[in-house]
Design brief:
Elements lengths: L8 H12 L5 H7 L5 H5 L2 E2 L7 E2 L16 H35 L11 H10 L9 H13 L12 H6 L2 H9 L7 H11 L8 H30 L5 E5 L9 E7 L2 H13 L1 H6 L6 E6 H11 L3 E3 L4 H6 L3 E6 L7 H8 L3 E4 L10 E2 L7 H18 L12 E5 L3 H9 L7 H9 L5 E5 L11 H12 L2 E6 H9 L5 H7 L2 H13 L9 E5 L4 H15 L8 E5 L5 H12 L4 E3 L9 H15 L3 E3 L3 H19 L2
Parallel strand pairs: 4-5, 4-7, 5-6, 7-8, 8-9, 11-12, 11-14, 12-13, 14-15, 15-16
Antiparallel strand pairs: 1-2, 3-10
Helix pairs in contact: 4-6, 4-9, 4-10, 4-24, 5-6, 5-10, 9-10, 10-24, 11-16, 19-26
Bound molecules: FE(4)-NI(1)-S(4) cluster.
Keywords: 4Fe-4S, Iron, Iron-sulfur, Metal-binding, Nickel, Oxidoreductase
GO molecular function, one term: peroxidase activity
Catalytic activity: CO + 2 oxidized [2Fe-2S]-[ferredoxin] + H2O = 2 reduced [2Fe-2S]-[ferredoxin] + CO2 + 2 H(+)
């Protein structure tokens, strides 16, 4: 394996240090894992019952059926939709947590939280079809929370989830209803996937995949409500200038890395850090407390409050290798269990906070919304105490940080466009697409994966697409990649955008008071914030009177890794969006499932998966798809 681990210069700077200290990283473990199981890679290994494990011989000489009789198509389909169920469960559990918090705030039970964006609350209520006239904020919040929780409780199969039904185009809803793919209840749909994939149940690959599509749409519903209600509680993203990469750690400050996904924890830690800054200074930290983000928690606080991003998924361990992180505070999802072992090599407190997400060796502070400030105070105190134990001789902060202009949620994008046309903000965007100044739109999402060189495909594809005048949106660890590599700057627009795209970004950015163009890639937020991109697309589609599968819009997850990414990719396809994967999905052991996802989906849904591991070729394929869509629209 001669592949480079990462194009991130901070990673390159720290890997030799990790080696010298005898610290194993994700890349060492990846190497030790080679060769990886070929059956697993093809998706043909079944571990669903204890007669197994069974695996299908991909070459046809050995068994073609598992002990129960399931063939490769059944096994692959079951495996992939179980991944979707887990992804949907993860996003939606996060969403439920936020919805319950909103209810608690509305009922005056959570003194450490408040509604920070009343305008957004009213907008959300209107979107859900709730009457708000003459009602006080707590009453509206309560109704919104209850309507949202209905998406976890509704037992009427013919009534689709509220958020889904109020955020997609009519045509899309009809199409999905025709396929019986509209979820009525997030929890029920996740449960149904687990039930139908139990030994001896659904064996029809097409039927299973359709069940997976429904699960993926439940995932969309869960992330949509998580995003929108988080805005209500914590503020809607606004453009802000901040920075990314490990150079945002400070030698003279108590460095607290917030890592995971759910803003309910990180927001209160940020609040408490402000209040406890003096305490940190008294402990000898002249720079006070420095909060930095990792993964999607990092993206959440970055787009809302301009908190710098330390790094994205694959290099989370590197943050610890700097010896400068005093506490890594984690909640849920994408936290490598290895962090506690690496933290123990230093003075770093690894603090878990959620009772159902613990890591051996970490300190557990039981986080409750009812006692949030008290819990956050304990967390920050642990960080300050750890700072006192920090060994300055072991601190190596690589001097890499890039400016990042972030915070482009739907409201911010529409707000910027309104500077050009206050009466009809979407018009400048639509005109630019119609006249070809913007050739198309690409949403970059998804993770990092050891199977590719970290960040490399993101950067290669984005530069090529931008040169070809494609407007770029990003979320999750994809957004982290762009932020770390300086592509969320005005300079990047000057350097990499094609002439007509540059013209549009400059006109909008200048009118919006940015004193120059919008950044080359617009940071929309965390993974749950992919729903923001859908919101923009739906607004454009409605305005044009077309459906989503007619727009020159594509999505790409060049380094997809997690079950959540499988769920997101699948709803992206279900919404009609051609969706590129830059890592090989574990489905190719079934020609039937592969065909369903890459070909049949096109007829049924308008969207489909495209797999291309070479980023340069992937960009070409996306451009071709964009042009095909433009032709279809006659533009
Ligand atoms: Fe996790 Fe969201 Fe993937 Fe990053 S992008 S590795 S899921 S943190 Ni969501």
């Amino acid at each position: 394996m001669t592949m480079n681990h990462s194009i991130d210069p901070a990673v390159a700077a720290l890997l030799p240090l990790a080696k010298k200290e005898g610290i194993a990283t994700v890349w060492d473990r990846y190497k030790a894992m080679q060769p990886q199981c070929g059956f697993g890679q093809l998706g043909v290994c079944c571990r669903i019952c204890w007669k197994g494990p069974c695996r299908i011989d991909p070459f046809g000489d050995g068994p073609q059926r598992g002990i129960c009789g399931a063939d490769a198509d059944t096994i692959v389909a079951r495996n992939v939709i179980r991944m979707i169920a887990s992804g949907a469960a993860s996003h939606s559990e996060h969403g439920r947590h936020v919805a319950l918090a909103l209810l608690g705030v509305a009922e005056g039970k959570l003194p450490d939280y408040r509604i920070r964006d009343e305008e957004k609350l009213r907008a959300v209520a209107a979107k859900l079809g709730l009457e708000t006239d003459g009602k006080e904020i707590p009453a509206i919040a309560r109704e919104v929370a209850l309507a949202t929780l209905g998406d976890f409780q509704n037992q009427d199969h013919d009534t689709p989830c509220t958020w889904l039904a109020s955020t997609l185009t009519e045509k899309r809803l009809e199409r999905l209803a025709g396929l019986h793919a509209l979820p009525h209840n997030i929890d029920a749909v996740v449960t149904q996937i687990l039930a139908r994939t139990h030994v001896g149940c659904d064996a029809d690959p097409a039927n299973l995949i359709l069940g997976g599509v429904k699960g993926a749409l439940a995932d969309y519903d869960g992330m949509c409500l998580a995003t929108e209600l988080s805005d209500v509680l914590f503020g809607t993203p606004r453009p802000a200038v901040t920075a990314a990469n490990l150079g945002v750690l400070k030698e003279d400050a108590v460095n607290i890395a917030v890592h995971g996904h759910n803003p309910l924890l990180s927001e209160v830690v940020c609040d408490l850090a402000l209040l406890m800054d003096d305490e940190a200074r008294r402990a000898g930290a002249a720079g006070g407390i420095n909060i930095v983000g990792i993964c999607c928690t990092g993206n959440e606080v970055m787009v809302r409050h301009g908190i710098p991003l330390a790094t994205n998924y694959l290099s989370q361990e590197m943050a610890l290798v700097t010896g400068a992180v005093d506490a890594m505070v984690v909640d849920v999802q994408c936290i490598m269990p290895s962090v506690s072992e690496i933290g123990a090599c230093f003075h770093t407190e690894i603090i878990t906070t959620m009772d159902d997400n613990r890591i051996p060796g970490a300190t557990h502070v039981r986080f409750r919304e009812t006692t949030a400030a008290e819990n956050a105070r304990e967390i920050v105190s642990l960080a300050i105490a750890a700072f006192r134990r920090r060994n300055p001789q072991r601190v190596v902060i690589p001097d890499f940080r890039q400016t990042a202009v972030v915070g482009f949620g739907t409201e911010a994008i529409v707000g910027a466009l309104a500077a050009l046309n206050a009466d009809d903000p979407l018009k400048p965007l639509i005109d630019s697409i119609a006249n070809g100044s913007i050739r198309g739109i690409a949403l970059f999402a998804g993770c990092n994966n050891t199977r590719t060189t970290q960040d490399s495909s993101f950067v290669t594809m984005a530069k090529k697409l931008a040169r070809n005048n494609v407007l770029l949106l990003a979320t999750g660890c994809g957004a982290g990649s762009f932020a770390k590599h300086g592509l969320m700057t005005q300079e990047a627009t000057e350097e990499h955008a094609g002439d007509s795209l540059k013209g549009v970004l400059t006109a909008v950015g200048t009118a919006a008071g940015l004193g120059g163009p919008l950044p080359l890639v617009l940071h929309m937020g965390s993974c749950v914030d992919n729903s923001r991109a859908v919101e923009v697309a739906v607004a454009v589609a409605n305005r044009l009177g077309v459906d989503l599968d007619q727009l020159p819009l594509v999505a790409s997850a060049p380094e997809a890794m997690s079950e959540k990414a499988v769920a997101i990719g699948t709803w992206s396809v279900a919404l009609g969006i051609p969706t590129h994967l830059g890592t090989m999905p574990q489905v190719t052991g079934s020609p039937a499932v592969t065909e369903l996802l890459t070909e049949t989906a096109k007829d049924l849904l308008g969207g489909y998966f495209m797999v291309e591991l070479d980023p340069d070729k992937a960009a070409d394929r996306l451009l071709a798809v964009i042009d095909e869509r433009r032709q279809g629209l006659g533009i």
